[in-house]
Amino acid sequence: MKTMRMMxxxxxxxxxxxxxxxxxxADPPDYLIFEIGTTGSDNYYSEGWDTSPILGIxxxxxxxxxxxxxxTWDQNAGLVLLPNIPTxxxxxxxxxxxxxxxxxxxxxxxxxxxxxxxxxxxxxxQLPLPAGEVxxxxxxxxxxxxxxxxxxxxxxxxxxxxAEGTATVVTTTTDTGCYAxxxxxxxxxxxxxxxxxxxxxxxxxVGFVYDTSTDTAFEVETLPGFNRTFNFAVSNAGHVVxxxxxxxxxxxxFIWTEAGGTQQVPLPSDTSRGWALGVNSDGWVVGTAYxxxxxxxxxxGIxxxxxGEQTYRIADLLxxxxxxxxxxxxxxxxxxxxxxxxxxxxxxxxGNRRAYALIPDDVVAALLQNFSAQGRADGIELQWGLSLxxxxxxxxxxxxxxxFGPWQTVEFSSGGQGTLLDSTAEPGQTYxxxxxxxxxxxxxxxxxxxxxxxxxxxxxxVALGAPAPNPTRAxxxxxxxxxxxxxxxxxxxxxxxxxxRTVVDxxxxxxxxxxxxxxxxxxxxxxxxxxxxxxxxxxxxSRVQRVxxxx
Length: 551
Hints:
- The protein is mainly β.
- The protein has a domain at 458-551: Immunoglobulin-like, CATH 2.60.40.
- The chain is built from no helices and 44 strands.
- The strands form ten sheets. A seven-stranded antiparallel sheet has the order 35-32-31-44-43-40-41, with no helix packed on it.
- It is globular.
């Protein structure tokens, strides 16, 4: 049982990518909320449109200075401004995968002449269009690099698959002859979802599902009493979400599974309509509901989270003094939720329209980028880094002579980076160190555990290289160096610190070595997708590297 709780919420204006996976959520978690900010001095608003399926990388756009530019959150560089193509001044990122590959659309003034775009390694390119087509957009991309979207032209409104440098209009129909007019999302299994048209009933829209691996299609059942269904998102576990409607503006959110069929997602209290916009592999749903007023087109957007049993307003998960308004404006939204529970959307922060990310405190271990302890003749040198660096964070370094404590404070600091020489460490004694992060309300959480022994030899030359490949779909290799023959333990841990695999455990000769992890746990099963920490431990030093597994 968890005995220490992270602060209920800390508001931080920072560009950051936090990643983890394998989250198991029972009760609605406490959150960190991050304002993503804007991408330049001329831009005064930003909006979050999607999150990658596993790691929670975000994409969206920032604008206001005579144009709009897409962005992502990159694991190493934080908020990354994505360039526009020369002929389009308004560009939006609609989808992103766990490798940071983003897709979206570029348009001219007033939304004219849309073109599908792809951003890779900071460069922008137009995706190819099918023969005869002149406009289109890309809405999502999976971890295999297959993107989906739609085109308009000679075949007005058709669903398209972008793969291997080509664009293909999907002509496969359902058993009733319905065809896809757009695709909004695709999962790693190649299941594409979107909206279809019934040629026998022009007023009917269907929730269209296309299996790219079998070239087959079917429609998601419409909720009883409605005649139109629109699919918006699909999880890697096969959940599909969207909304059903009868006439404008009625909308009812749903979740579909192969086992359970189409089920209505309960709306938040006091709302009259809404849509489900994102879903993760645990079946947790996010979306936006609405409070309608007597005047036409007067409403408030209410972003929500549904955990399979209960629906929560996002606003109710935030303290009253957070500075965020998620209830009294038209643009508040929740568009994406990753498998680790990271939610991306848009809200009002201090009166400004801003993209946000909600990070469950269960995922806070992913804040830790590096944490090392190295024995020296004059003490033990410690270095740490978090994936955000803000004075709103209060970090305490604690020390004990046992991994179970008791713990004593060594150093206080603010911000996410730190270096300290613990000169009070006694020679010959192994010391354990950990970091405690405190929020503004006094809540805390503990990150990391490293140990070292003060000594003049054996530690200065200990090194652990970066994993390669990273991210990886199967296994990874890590080089390490030892200055003398010594006992070494190299292990793999998940983001909660649980042991996944012991790879090396014994006496190793001095010199350079290569450790290979096949991506499996000690039980022989493949480790789930997510972030893992590879730790090298000797009696004098501890080194840690991160690796991301995608499936």
